[in-house]
Write a structure and sequence with these properties.
The chain has one domain (6-109): DsrEFH-like (Hypothetical Protein Ychn, Chain: A, 3-Layer(aba) Sandwich), CATH 3.40.1260.10. Helices cover 45% and strands 12% of the residues. It has helices at residues 6-21, 42-45, 54-64, 71-76, 93-101, 106-109; strands at residues 27-30, 66-70, 88-91. α1 (6-21) runs parallel beside α3. The longest helix has 16 residues, at 6-21. The chain is globular, with a radius of gyration of 14 Å.
């Protein structure tokens, strides 16, 4: 869900940015084609009529929440930590599960 599905992409960023602005603890994970939005200039190039600018939504999420790029998705696209925007982390399933459960689940992963 990236530029190949612009409405769904914009909806995800809009809901996450709105939740962040409302004080919610937000963590948005970029997967698949949305992985490219972790890179400088990619959100700025995204256009969808009648939608807030994706770069503004992304920046709001980064300012008050977490923006994570899936490890496997990054690897498939040759994206490294040197490539991503400041504040974007690259992490995998264990981190996702820890966030969802709100606890350290290391013992469950190994």
């Amino acid at each position: 869900m990236g530029a190949d599905a612009p409405e769904r992409c914009a909806q995800a960023f809009t809901v996450a940015a709105t939740a962040t602005a409302s004080g919610a603890d937000v963590s948005l994970w970029l997967t698949g084609e949305a992985s490219w939005f972790a890179l400088p200039g990619r959100a700025e190039a995204f256009e969808l009529p009648h939608s807030a600018a994706l770069a503004d939504l992304r920046d709001a999420i980064l300012a008050g929440g977490a923006l994570t790029l899936c490890t496997q998705c990054a690897a498939r696209r040759d994206i490294t930590t040197d490539d991503v925007l400041p504040g974007v982390r690259i992490a995998g399933a264990q981190t996702f599960v820890e966030e969802v459960l709100g606890a350290d689940v290391q013992a469950l992963v190994y």
